[in-house]
Input
Amino acid sequence: MLTVTSLVPQIIDEKRSIDMPETFPKDHEGGAEKLGAIRHRIEVAARMAGRHDDPTLVAVSKTFDVDDIRPLIAAGQRVFGENRVQEAAGKWPELKKETPGIELHLIGPLQTNKLKQALELFDVFHTLDRMRLAQALVKARDTGTALPDLFVQVNIGVEPQKAGILPDEADQFIETCRDAMGLPVIGLMCIPPVDEDPEPHFRKLAEMAARHGLANLSMGMSADFEVAIRCGATHVRVGSALFGTRPPFKPTV
Output
């Protein structure tokens, strides 16, 4: 447990310590050490922001195999994120069987033809990004399938290469999904432009969530999660800072 005394060195230079480029743990360091370091940074960032809650750490394990993931599980991590349904299907049924209580989040784009399998694997979707997917979720629910909690993905920087609802269309989309369609939308997600200050984008998403009474914000990754926490993130998606250099994705044949 952190004390006020232990936080004094960080508080002296709060803004600089949060915004400065981060140094990732070395690949040879143990999972417990990496996890402990990131949890400490999350706790410090939350306290410096005047918060008394700690955001949920979603450990992004995409492209890493089960032997890379197990050390974090052994160290107590229970919430993980994956980008691809096919990849997750190749490793998480085994890991979930080994360790009850794991919560798996889908943080990558979802094709409707993979929805059935995704609903069997994942506990939370962070990427509800279009009406066609919303309609497919309604159809699945109406045939008796339980739906996971949903985050609406907002293309906060209006980038043509990224998925997500455009900010000008997001209010109507959120209202339609949650109120008219009855989908379990619990929050919003975004990925800011990589070459811009993320803080204005995080604050814009937080304002949008507040307008709709949504309590959850999925924002912030390895390079900017402390800034996101300052802006109200409830879920931060951290991969490289936990797992080290990411290997290339190898599709399952």
User: Anything to note?
Assistant: Residues 1-29 have pLDDT under 50 and may be disordered.
